[in-house]
Predict the structure.
Amino acid sequence: MPEKTFKMLQINEKWCKGCGICVAFCPKDVLDIKSGKVIIKDIDACIKCGQCELRCPDYAIYLGGEDNEK
Amino acid sequence: MPSQLINNYFRTNSLPHIWCPGCGNGIVTRSIVEAIDNLNLDRDKVCIVSGIGCSSRASGYLDFNTLHTTHGRALTFATGIKMAKPGLEVIVITGDGDCSAIGGNHLIHASRRNINITTIVYNNNIYGMTGGQYSPTTPKGDKGTTAPYGSIDTDFDLCNLTAGAGATYVGRATVFNPKLIVKLIENGIKNKGFSFIEAVTTCPTYYGRKNKKGSAVDMMRYLKDNSINIETAKKLEDNKLKDKIIVGELYKNIRPEYTDEYNKIVDSF
């Protein structure tokens, strides 16, 4: 049986324009803006709801990839 | 590496897009591909047509059959495509100025014909690309570069306009609630006839700045606080609905579709 994978919060810094929409609408206050780009402030608080991905106008933040460590 | 959805349906080598920081257009464009993905449409059977304006740049970023046409004429090109190849799923991306001013005539006639096209209008209440001139959907009293003391024109309600002209599926949603945009687009594509979806979006650079609406986040909060679902709105008194954005499925009807009617004539010979 293949190992179970989990989606993780990913940031594509090159596409981020620092509008702050994801930061404002994150229900768990996971994100912040630093030097005009989004950063993950507190990954442990992330509940992977995907609200940030849904409203990011620049497709710079999303749930994706594989995280086999958890 | 972008997300799978973006990777699958966007021309990622042309991203990041040109839209300003906080512009809602990207949210609507993502909602369109999410709807297409949910419906499992064959991408070779989808044709995306756009006019001119900020919104209409979307066709260039999407990896389908795409056509970027002249100002206001997206619906005319789309009508031609649909008549020539009725099997294609034709989706029109247009802006408030593009579809209701320059292409206003085409919008009412496409609605009247009930041709099977899904139109998504990115309504940001202003002409963004050309520098913030007021558009037919700029609310009365609001400012633009060509209305420095406030617009004295009464603004269009695009949903009422198209429903009145004969569209068979009409809905409205805001970029604060992209899930609703996705749902409306899915239903619009499924509807056999002219579907019109108004996506209320934000323009922090021009509309927001000219009218002191604050940052992109403030504008999103405004959409959140001022939109009321049609089902809730039905139970409220009229004075509570003043200046509110009524969202949801606003109008549905069943009428003969244009290409079907046309083919009946062709088959009669």
Summary: Chain A touches chain B at residues 10, 12, 14-15, 17-21, 23-25, 53-60, 62-65 (CB under 8 Å). The CA atoms of residues 24 and 31 of chain A lie 9 Å apart. Helices of chain A lie at 21-25, 51-55. The longest helix of chain A spans residues 21-25.
